[in-house]
């Protein structure tokens, strides 16, 4: 993968289309206290550096300081990332608020639009972002982030169809990727409910992270985190290699060091 992307970088220099790596990472309770742990932040930095675009979830950052410290860290030395995020979204009746945060490499990707989905139906309503890339055959595409509430996963996954339509209509663009912690594992999304969820319609969508992928650090065997693309995007961008980024193994971490970062592994896909 690294070699392929290195070759991709080389061909980018020759103005040949290459690859784009997109990830989605639920960084459990990513707030002020985690952002001050340098060991943890160094690992998060190394993870972020892999991606052209990474969606980060569970960002508990009302005043922007957590985002700023992450941006400072990943841009240390040579600035290459910009960010775009939702406002802090209130979580239920409690005082917690979380953002959807995207970091992207501004030399390969630009943001060309965004909107906050506001209709009801979600604990964390998606903040939809349109990107444009010089690295992919399809140059314009839309990312819809979603982190569902476990007990509401079925209802929220059902409601995503409306968000996909809203994005399609706003930008007349059918290249759409839905990504994040769907909680599409355990008993949260029972198999019998799938026929009621438009996102599972294989005429329209393609699930890149199948059920047998374990996205949890605890090795619970559950594919909570997913990446789903419209068939248009699937055909146009020929997704190669989707899966988890097992940073525990890749960075030779102990289980405790890994858990200090998150209870989830990032999921990722490379587009051509
Ligand atoms: C990150 O986002 C904040 C808030 O939108 C913005 O003020 C800041 O300039 C962004 N930083 C970068 C490097 O993109």
Automatic annotation (TrEMBL):
GO terms for molecular function: deoxyribonuclease I activity; DNA binding. CDD domains: DNase1. It comes from the Eukaryota. Keywords: Endonuclease, Hydrolase, Nuclease, Signal. Residues 1-19 form the signal peptide. Residues 24-234 form the Endonuclease/exonuclease/phosphatase domain. The active site is at residues 98, 147. GO terms for biological process: DNA catabolic process. InterPro entries: DNase_I (IPR016202), Endo/exonu/phosph_ase_sf (IPR036691), Endo/exonuclease/phosphatase (IPR005135). One of its GO terms (cellular component) is nucleus. SUPFAM superfamilies: DNase I-like (SSF56219). Belongs to the DNase I family. This is Deoxyribonuclease.
């Amino acid at each position: 993968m690294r070699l392929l992307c290195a070759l991709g970088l080389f061909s980018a220099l020759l103005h040949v289309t290459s690859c784009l790596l997109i990830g989605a990472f639920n960084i459990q309770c990513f707030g002020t206290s985690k952002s001050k742990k340098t060991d943890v932040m160094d690992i998060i930095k190394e993870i972020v550096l892999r991606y052209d675009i990474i969606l980060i979830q569970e960002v508990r950052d009302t005043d922007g300081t957590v985002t700023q410290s992450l941006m400072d860290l990943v841009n240390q030395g040579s600035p290459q990332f910009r960010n775009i995020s939702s406002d802090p979204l209130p979580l239920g009746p409690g005082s917690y608020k979380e953002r959807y945060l995207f970091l992207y490499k501004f030399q390969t990707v630009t943001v060309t639009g965004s909107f906050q989905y506001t209709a009801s139906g979600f604990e964390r309503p998606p903040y939809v972002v349109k990107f444009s890339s010089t690295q992919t055959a399809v140059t314009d595409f839309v990312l819809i982030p979603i982190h569902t509430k476990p007990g509401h996963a079925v209802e929220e996954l059902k409601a995503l169809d409306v968000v996909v339509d809203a994005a399609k209509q706003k930008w007349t663009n059918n290249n759409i990727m839905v990504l994040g912690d769907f909680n599409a594992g355990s008993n949260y999304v029972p198999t019998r409910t799938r026929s009621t969820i438009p996102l599972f319609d294989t005429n329209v969508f393609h699930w890149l992270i199948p059920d047998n992928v374990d996205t949890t650090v605890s090795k619970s065997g559950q594919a909570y985190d997913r990446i789903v693309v419209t068939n248009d995007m699937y055909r146009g961008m020929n997704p190669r290699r989707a899966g988890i980024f097992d940073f525990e193994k890749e960075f030779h971490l102990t289980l405790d060091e890994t858990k200090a970062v998150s209870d989830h592994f990032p999921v990722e896909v490379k587009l051509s």
